[in-house]
Amino acid sequence: MGGDYYEILEINRNATDADIKKAYRRLALKFHPASNREPGSNDKFRQLGEAYDVLSDLRKKATYDKFGDSGLKGGIPLELAIGGAWSSKYAYHDNPEKTFKDFLGVPTLFQKLQISRKVMNDNGCTSSIRDKILTVIVKPGWKEGTRITFPKAGDQSPNNIAADMVFIMRQKPHPRFERQDNDLIYHKRISLEMALTGFSVDVETLDGRFIKIPINEIVHPSYKKVVSGEGMPLPHNPSQKGDLIFTFDILFPEKLSAETARRSQTSQCSMSPNAGKMA
Fold this sequence. Notes:
4-stranded mixed β-sheet; HSP40/DNAj peptide-binding domain; HSP40/DnaJ_pept-bd; two-stranded antiparallel ribbon; DnaJ heat shock protein family (Hsp40) member B13; disordered C terminus; protein-folding chaperone binding; 7 helices; alpha+beta; Helix Hairpins
């Protein structure tokens, strides 16, 4: 790649892990190909991905700090890998978008909008209508009502500066989940037998993974199953997430079959405190 990883991320060599993450986030959003069409932005985005891939890994960073780029990519003898330094030859996977998505936890949405601005002349008449492209970067975890302001991007008149353009987030309903703050609610209908005997729930997460959640407790009407860290990303810290909460609607049968009724009576007798006592 060439260049100094610290210079690429615009940080000094005493930067903490938090400094590295903060710098990468700021610059990756700035140079992401979906929001930046300037010449060289793709190369810059790739450089940022490689720099972050190295400096965010303690072993790679230790080798780079001590032996430089040549030691990192050429490899060092095992006896020199003191303190757990990276000894193998390093090569970036050349997928900066993967680095970016792994960093955020979920994809970031870039939305390009074309607006028309009215520019008024001194007579109060519209002298021109100018189109302008605005890029709205929707960050992970943003909530409904979040406001994105573009200063002076609105209409303009002789006696007034251009107005601000404000976009307000509206959240569309999801077919599987209901959002409550940073938590996701998943509703499932189950039979009475499942509620009493246990079962498991297979669910596809928002980022496309499939997880299996075992339910081993008896499910009563107010029962909830909480799975930590599978909810929405926290707006100010997307690497952390809220909870995924399962709630259940129990379908009671309208009537019991003779066999089911017999099994129920047998079960009740076996649970009786007097069961098995001699008369």
